[in-house]
Amino acid sequence: MPPSSATAKRSKRTENHAVAGLSIGSYLIRRLHECGIRDVFGVPGDYILGFYSLLNDSPINIVSCTREDCAGFAADAYARVSGMGALAVTYCAGGLNACNSIAGAYAEKSPVVLISGAPGISERENKPLLHHMVRDFRTQLEVFEKLCVAGVELDDAQTAFREIDRVLDAVASYKRPGYIEIPRDMLHVVPSGRHRAESRSEQASDEDALREAVEEAVRMINGSQKAVIIAGVELHRFSLQDAMLALAEEARIPITTTMLGKSVIRETHPLFVGLYEGAMGREEVTQFVEESDCVILLGSFMTDINLGIYTANLDPGKCIYATSEQLRIRHHHFHGVRLADFIEQLTRKKPRPPQRAIPKNPYAEQGKFELRPRDPIRVERMISRINESLDDKTVVIADVGDALFAATELVIRQKTEFLSPAYYTSMGFAVPAALGAQVARPDLRPLVIVGDGAFQMTGNELSTIVRRGLNPIVIVLENGGYNTERLLHPGNYKFNDILPWKYHRLPEVLGGGRGYDVRTEGQFDQALRSALADTSQMGLLEVHLDQRDCSKALRRLAEKLSKKV
Amino acid sequence: MPPSSATAKRSKRTENHAVAGLSIGSYLIRRLHECGIRDVFGVPGDYILGFYSLLNDSPINIVSCTREDCAGFAADAYARVSGMGALAVTYCAGGLNACNSIAGAYAEKSPVVLISGAPGISERENKPLLHHMVRDFRTQLEVFEKLCVAGVELDDAQTAFREIDRVLDAVASYKRPGYIEIPRDMLHVVPSGRHRAESRSEQASDEDALREAVEEAVRMINGSQKAVIIAGVELHRFSLQDAMLALAEEARIPITTTMLGKSVIRETHPLFVGLYEGAMGREEVTQFVEESDCVILLGSFMTDINLGIYTANLDPGKCIYATSEQLRIRHHHFHGVRLADFIEQLTRKKPRPPQRAIPKNPYAEQGKFELRPRDPIRVERMISRINESLDDKTVVIADVGDALFAATELVIRQKTEFLSPAYYTSMGFAVPAALGAQVARPDLRPLVIVGDGAFQMTGNELSTIVRRGLNPIVIVLENGGYNTERLLHPGNYKFNDILPWKYHRLPEVLGGGRGYDVRTEGQFDQALRSALADTSQMGLLEVHLDQRDCSKALRRLAEKLSKKV
User: Fold this and answer.
1) Which CATH architecture has domain B379-550?
2) Is the confidence metric ipTM above 0.90 for this complex?
3) A15-200 sits in which CATH class?
4) Helix H or strand E encompassing A167
5) Which terminus of chain B has a smaller tally of CB atoms within 10 A, N or C?
């Protein structure tokens, strides 16, 4: 069967290597490598030690983390930056520690492969109670079937290669996590017979539906007075940023992004309007989008936080809503239309709505930051100061809470990356994500903004960062507790308080990195300068904030959310 | 319907309070309190904040932890020490972080209630993408159905009280975790109609099966030459320690325990033989058990680690195997016989096997510890030194790895408690368990033994310990890596190494507790004395060990396990 053009690339991969004689473990490693994975995160444990040895002798590096959930976040960030990520863990006591980070990757469409060791098939006779076992041998697989787009237990040598292909293909196609469990006595088994990688070509678009949809979209755009694009994170996941830009530039349609989609376009682009976050965002952006009579959502998730807790006010009757999963124009749906095809065909039709004046972005336009050295440091001033120091080599990583809300006001220049769990909003993402991002892209320097509560969850992962000689700059927002919760649910509740650590002294415990204790603008400025200049090590800035201080975005969000708590 | 005697206690509870007018949240809190829960662990988050406010105004205290998995371990230890434990967390990004600790509670039969907030029912119309959501609104419930003995989403006011009763009854009966999810708009709903707590009486034993089983057991015991009891952890969970002792003392049958069951009997009891751990344990105990012609296993899990990775060599044809779940004598099974009834009826029959001479326990018999102040500290010498300082007010908590294997050689006196995840063997149990145990029993002082790898996972929970002014003594075994894995899978693998923190300096970061840096026997002796004398704060001993040093038990185990890796 000659490969079609759509499958040529994948078939080529298959032809390039002989798989005869490979063990199941070796085949998995080869396939991971072909998917662009150069580093696997994880924590060793007896059921996975055999696989670690195989990795150790392979071109793929092992990055040992302090915890499995951190390994999950690191693999997620690695995937966001470089296309696919992986972690390898031991059975249950290892794997079940990664449930939350895998769930986050599912929710936010990050292609992560979770590989778990398991008791050998031969160890399972007579249903023994083996260590790390929960209920029965399938428990962990069943849990991850809920949290992954595809999963398999490699208990059959005859199907193992095909099943590995199936899971990795699903991860690549859907940009969701996949689960591969290897009973440890299957690792070195060499399947008999020949393996032919199936040409699982991507489904082509339904041509009639595509044509009809594009025609209608063009009519709608050309008939509109005020068109706008909302560019979402899927454009990044499916490498469609340039396609979207081609459309916007061809048709001169202004572009906004969502919080999760921040950095899919440089924010100094002349067509860029700002972040659309409903009532949470800047008023002029909200107004610009909501008075539009043609809203083209491309790869955007319509999530609550992403769109300002449904304070976003979009009339579906004016929307073209295209994602990797669906295409809806006004109130009807087109099935079987690929996002890439839709954007490409739409661009070819050269739609031409009237041009719109784009409001100025006050953050992009702001003049030089005027330091007030003795003023206590405040969140918004801190963001303005950071704004001056971003460059192409920065990847900004924001944890949730005001770390995220404040960071949305950073101006993304050129190809600065911005990573954040802006939909699933799991605390503790940022520090391990810095590890993952910098392992994936050693040429980038992560700038992490993280709340104290989130830092207490996963800040330990600085250990791995120090051990590997990485140099992120980590800014801990210290206000003695969960400030977002305090704002959501006012009242003097002690349960929102946490112990104020001396975060800047952690480098003394870790034996690496440099800590800075920051209370004023002057101290912040100096610490940031020093940390930026010192590329030899991790910099940890402990920034003391007033409990009443927060970004404007958080204050607006809290007002909306607190009604539901 | 008049209550039977078996249900009198529970019915009394129901009569004692009127539930009319209570909201679902208030009813849950009342029932938790009736189950003996005085403290709930957790991490606040918006979907559970309403429940936290209710707790705040109730007789139950909130113990905010750094992470949800730590809250799970703390609740598990609380349950082991005081009968039932609970944690309350937010939806998915909170709850899914507790999968591993809940799985551990399931595997080791610890009665823990996991309470999770969730989006309100009214928020779910039109299937919005709410933050913290994974796949659909049932995902988290479905995950915990795999890891709990019972679970419910309280989405129906008419059944809510009954469902709360059902889950709590299952937790109490089966000593396994239960899951209760509360959509946040159901919290304050007051069900109409009357709630009558169902008299869910414990199933009585099948009298015929019980009689026949007891008769056979007595014949077997009386006909034996060498009888022995293996006392397991279920005796502790179901409060059957005294019943087992009554049987053993009546019949003068020697007693051994398993690793997980350590501390179900004081180890200075004249009938105590030692820990039976197959080839992993002391040779004279192994021989004593395996040459027995009548082995009475009471409440023991037949797990791999518990019984020395199946190096245990028990002939089922000589066993009476009674647990809360089954009763097997030789090769046949009796259904419907309660463990408590079996032990009680057996005792009444006054079996009398021949008496056996009990080998001396070298650890209990050992003379005074002779300090060699300048010698580098070694694991076995450290355990001998600790042995001298145990008393009734100590709860020993061992993490996994050599922390556990070495600690099995401690001699449990009187009512010293010993906690460890000896079956599920999840790293990171010990530090949060110290929090849970001391919150449950402030009169006890935890003595924690934990490896450096495990400490890097959950040592952050010292934050909560410092914040609450608790005073455990935490001994970190520092050897730069996962030493158990190094022994299981020899080879110079870097992935088993971890960054050597300066653990003893953590108190400076936390602003509380005192650290000790220990390299010699003299330093260990001084640090332990000092930490024991200083009851005002947590003591953190960083004990530097040679990588080649380990307990005899671990060395024996590693020899067995390494063949399977």
Assistant:
1) 3-Layer(aba) Sandwich (3.40)
2) yes
3) alpha beta
4) helix A157-174
5) N
